[in-house]
Specification:
The complex is a heterodimer.
Chain A: E1 5-16, E2 19-30, E3 34-39, H1 45-52, E4 60-65, E5 68-69, H2 75-82, E6 85-88, H3 100-111, H4 116-129, H5 145-156, E7 163-167, H6 175-192, E8 195-199, H7 203-209, E9 212-217, E10 222-227, H8 229-235, H9 239-245
Parallel strand pairs in A: 3-8, 3-9, 6-7, 7-8
Antiparallel strand pairs in A: 1-2, 1-4, 4-5, 9-10
Helix pairs in contact in A: 3-4, 3-5, 4-5, 6-7
Chain B: E1 3-5, E2 11-14, E3 27-31, E4 37-45, H1 50-63, E5 69-79, H2 81-96, E6 101-104, H3 108-116, H4 136-170, H5 177-189, H6 192-214, H7 222-261, H8 264-270, H9 275-313, H10 318-328, H11 331-357, H12 363-395
Parallel strand pairs in B: 4-5, 5-6
Antiparallel strand pairs in B: 1-2, 2-3, 3-4
The chains are: A alpha/beta, B alpha/beta.
Chain lengths: 249, 397
């Protein structure tokens, strides 16, 4: 039996004003894999991510998430899709006036009818999963960059979504913290089976976590490669792909 | 039909929302001869069913307290933290009933998940209540210290502004002219319509209210004196300053506060710029120029509002009204109002920028700074206006 595509992107086009950022972007993300969207600065990685999570309406094409069309869903339809996904933003986007525990419990209280004790226990488990035991009562401003990312991750996975999206998760982190975050993502992926879509250009992270990648290119205004990152690094004939993996200017 | 109990009353099956034809239930409960209970779960234990499991099982065990409780996980295909929550609740039930709790036949994946979640250490009561509030005297002491620290910072900030202003007066080229002009536009040009409208309406209301009394004595012409004098000396500068505090003082606090939390102020400092000179002085100079001008406009529009009432309701001629206003006002009255406008401009800029620089943390802090900038400015405007009134009373006899 073939793998089940949980995200289907077909002929997607996006842009601002008269400028086209990318067009004819087509790919599938399969259940349980860690899928990385790769490319240089300004190629449209974040635009693609925003389109996938419903923040940006694409000009053309379609995006299906777990059988629901994102690109044409109305508000109610989009809300149903949003319940299936979690997003970790580049800045973590924690609410500064709330403690870490309140940040994580917010979606649980909103979408479940669990009692306060049970919610607190779940928050404790979530914080344990991301190695933030004992930090529930801290404000985000009292955390380091890596801890903020992990707190943001705990909030993103509060309802155990089917798909987790990450926008530059390693940005601003030192190599050790970045590697720890990569290991955490792998562990969560293996244990919970969550599908992950990651936008990044950190090569170390890509080779550690990615099951498959796609690469976008600014000049080509679209996708130039798709597949296993190691295979692409060693066998791709595309000049930009070679340049990217070999870190050549 | 969520529950089915067999004829013996010993066997409970939970089908949830599944069809009764589906012979695999979510869980079943058996009781043994020693009074122990075994719950056998089937399939997934996740966020989709954990809530209903906990509700149903709590209800069941409140009616049938278990002795020893065993949970058989052999048929569980998936367990996440929501599912683990069900196990924690069951353990709590067993402990409450003074019974033992045991997990039976967890598969490798389930064991991994339970280890990952550190299941064995999850039973201490968890609470994320806010930290306990300190006693009243401790809080009083802390608040007093905060006030003194705030005062110290405010005085230091006056010092920093004075030094920077002195530097800019001796080095005029260092002034950021474009920023100053932009601030002048925001404070003055953009603020003029609302200052004009409110002042016009103030003049209109004052003339209308005073005419009710003065008309009885045939003293309609003194409406012009009342409106002219009260607006130029007191209400014009105060109204203008309050509007500027609401529009621009809050904007200063929000702008600098946002720059502070996004580390732009730190960037200025590390690039060798004086943040006060860069951010405060252009605003200060712009406010010092524009608030007195707005005050003059406020006086003019208020007199125009009074004129409208005088001409259309009190049968005064426009010429008589204007002549009476000119006869009443002295150059000192107008100058005094404009001078107060300048002092209020200093206060608004000082407090707005001070609150901006005091921002720390996140977005909520910017909101607090903005509110505080407006409230503090208005308080200082009224306080200084009172001082001016007393000083004027005793210096002019």
């Amino acid at each position: 039996m073939g793998r089940k595509a949980i995200i289907e992107v077909k002929d997607l086009e996006a842009g601002y004003d008269d400028a086209v950022i990318f067009r004819h972007v087509t790919f599938n993300v399969y259940e349980g894999e860690i899928f990385v969207i790769l490319g240089g600065s300004g190629c449209g990685k974040s635009t693609l991510l925003k389109s996938m999570i419903g923040l940006l309406r694409p000009r053309a094409g379609r995006i299906m998430i777990d059988g629901n069309m994102v690109s044409t869903e109305d508000e109610d339809g989009l809300k149903k899709i949003l319940e299936k996904i979690g997003v970790l933003y580049q800045s973590s986007a924690l609410f500064g006036s709330m403690t870490v525990a309140q940040n994580v419990s917010l979606p649980i209280e909103e979408y479940t009818s669990l009692k306060k004790d049970a919610v607190d226990m779940l928050v404790k488990m979530k914080l344990g999963l991301v190695n933030l035991d004992g930090y529930g009562n801290h404000l985000p401003s009292e955390l380091s960059g890596g801890m903020k990312k992990r707190a943001g991750l705990a909030r993103a996975m509060a309802l155990n979504p089917k798909i987790l999206f990450f926008d530059e998760p390693s940005a601003g982190l030192d190599p050790i913290t970045s590697a720890e975050l990569d290991n955490l993502l792998l562990h969560l992926n293996r244990t919970l089976g969550t599908t992950m879509v990651i936008v990044t250009h950190e090569l170390d992270s890509i080779f550690t976590v990615a099951s498959r990648i796609i690469m976008l290119d600014k000049k080509a205004k679209g996708m130039i490669a798709e597949g296993d990152p190691r295979y692409l690094r060693d066998h791709s004939q595309n000049a930009f792909v070679k340049q990217f993996f070999n870190r050549r200017a | 039909m969520p529950f089915l109990r067999d004829i013996m009353g010993k066997y409970l099956i939970h089908y949830g929302e599944r069809s009764i034809k589906d012979l695999t239930p979510f869980y079943d409960i058996t009781e043994n001869a020693q009074g122990g209970t075994t719950i056998r779960f089937h399939g997934r234990m996740d966020s989709g069913n954990a809530g209903s499991f906990m509700e149903d099982l709590s209800r069941y065990f409140s009616e049938n307290p278990p002795g020893n409780l065993a949970v058989d996980l052999e048929d569980v295909t998936y367990l996440d933290d929501f599912g683990t929550l069900v196990l924690i609740e069951l353990r709590k039930i067993a402990v409450k009933a003074n019974g033992d709790f045991e997990l039976l036949h967890p598969g490798e994946k389930i064991r991994d998940m339970l280890m990952f979640l550190r299941f064995d250490s999850l039973f201490k009561k968890t609470s994320f209540e806010k930290k306990r509030r300190q006693g009243v005297f401790v809080r009083l002491g802390e608040k007093t210290f905060d006030i003194f620290l705030d005062l110290k910072y405010a005085v230091s900030f006056i010092g920093a502004i004075t030094l920077s202003l002195g530097y800019h007066l001796t080095h005029p080229k260092a002034l950021r002219t474009e920023d100053t002009l932009e601030s002048m536009q925001k404070i003055g040009v953009d603020g003029l319509p609302i200052v004009a409208l409110i002042s016009f309406l103030m003049g209109l209301i004052m003339a209308f209210m005073s005419s009710v009394q003065l008309e009885q004595f045939g003293a309609n012409i003194y409406v012009a004196s009342l409106v002219g004098l009260s607006m130029t000396r007191e209400l014009g500068p105060i109204m203008t300053a309050i509007i500027v505090a609401g529009r621009s003082g809050s904007a200063f606090a929000a702008e600098i506060g946002t720059m502070k939390i996004s580390e732009e102020v730190d960037a200025l400092f590390t690039m060798g710029f004086d943040p006060v000179g860069f951010l405060v002085i252009p605003k200060l100079i712009a406010a010092l120029i524009m608030v007195p001008i707005l005050t003059l406009f406020s006086d003019i529009f208020a007199i125009a509002g009074g004129l409208l009432v005088g001409v259309f309701m009190l049968d005064l001629t426009a010429g008589a009204y204007v002549a009476q206003t000119i006869n009443t006002l002295t150059v000192f009255d107008v100058f005094w109002g404009v001078l107060k406008g300048g002092i209020f401009a200093l206060l608004i800029t000082w407090v707005g920028c001070l609150r901006g620089f005091q921002v720390s943390g996140g977005a909520a802090s910017v909101g607090q700074a903005t509110t505080s900038a407006v409230v503090s400015s208005i308080f200082l405007i009224i306080l200084f206006d009172s001082i001016f009134s007393v000083v004027l009373r005793y210096t002019t006899g």
